[in-house]
Amino acid sequence: MTIPVLDWSQHGTDPEGFARDLGRACRETGFFLLKNHGVPDALISQVFDQAARFFALSEADKRPLSIASNRHNRGWAYLGSESLDDSSGQTDRKEAFNIGLDLAADDPRVLHGEPFRGVNLWPALPGFRSTMLEYFNAAWALGMDLLQPVARDLGLPPDHFAPHFTAPMATLRLLSYPATSGAEGEIGAGAHTDYGALTLLLTDGTPGLQVRPRGARDWQDVPHVPGAFIVNIGDCLMRWTNDIYVSTPHRVLPPTRARQSIAFFLDPNPNAVVAALPGTGVAKYPPVTGADYLQSRLSATYKT
């Protein structure tokens, strides 16, 4: 399997050609690299710097921000709190910090207890909140732009997905993988597929991310292209396309040196109905709301 490199600038000059290339990648590999995406390098550097500052905090400083303190998938996940591959018996060796759509405590959606509508938890680090929200909005905008060629490839109007992502359950996830301890059977992140529509991932260049095509036995390293996003299809979009697009299993090996990555998971609005798109044939799955689907996947991930 070759993971293609797509050039976002082509979308402006040849939208039909870009949609064909993107559609081929989504059908065949479920992964592609995206260069010339327009997210500023300076902002990306700031996000990595701020993430490193957060993970360098003491456990005592991070504990009040625990993701276990709320039901909205926000906050700090401690080392060893997740297991993405239950079948392996391995615990993921990583820390994470989740940021969602930024809502005020008096927002009606928060007050009414709507699914995944909570307030973000913020560390007392100067510039952390503003940097993360600027990046969240930039990644959200890029994800929405990518859904236009997705729709075009599927024979739908370019704005088909727009109403379903007006206030998405998107998650910006900062990830820190400590260097391997050398113990047998360690894993950075167990084999899994992502839950949402699209994932936009940046890494610091340290190797570790691998993919395995469905039905294959061998794992393949994902190449690093400086400045490029690694983009992959999540299970929600695979389900939406009635399995026309593929959500490809991937994992993170324990790195030989500490590793950082920044993931942006674009999930739809909580009340968006995910059902087989027009023209995709007889539905293989019953309709489900975005919130119900995401909750079912998260419940299987976190250790109790």
3D architecture notes:
The protein has 304 residues and is of the alpha+beta class. It has one domain (5-299): B-lactam Antibiotic, Isopenicillin N Synthase, Chain (Jelly Rolls, Sandwich), CATH 2.60.120. Helix 2 (15-28) packs across helix 6. The N and C termini lie far apart (37 Å). The strands form 3 sheets. An 8-stranded mixed β-sheet has the order 1-2-10-7-12-5-4-3. A 4-stranded antiparallel β-sheet has the order 6-11-8-9, with no helix packed on it. It is globular and about 55 Å long. The protein contains 8 helices and 14 strands. A hairpin with an 8-residue loop joins strand 8 and strand 9 (220-221).
The succession of helices and strands, N to C, reads EHHEHHEEHHEEEEEEHEEEEH
Q: Please give the largest β-sheet.
A: 8 strands, mixed
Reading off the top of the CATH hierarchy, the class is best stated as: Mainly Beta
User: Can you tell me the residue ranges where pLDDT is under 50 for at least 5 consecutive residues?
Assistant: none
Tally of alpha and pi helices = 8
Instruction: Report the span from N to C terminus.
Output: 37 Å
Please indicate the percent range of residues in DSSP E strands (runs of 2 or more): 15-25%
* Adjacency order of strands in the biggest sheet: 1-2-10-7-12-5-4-3
Overall spatial form: globular
Structural class: alpha+beta
In the CATH hierarchy, the third-tier topology is known as Jelly Rolls
Number of domains: 1
CATH-level-4 superfamily name: B-lactam Antibiotic, Isopenicillin N Synthase, Chain
Shape-level CATH architecture: Sandwich
Q: How much is the average pLDDT?
A: 94
Give me the Rg, rounded: 18 Å
Number of strands: 14
- Helical residues, percent: 25-40%
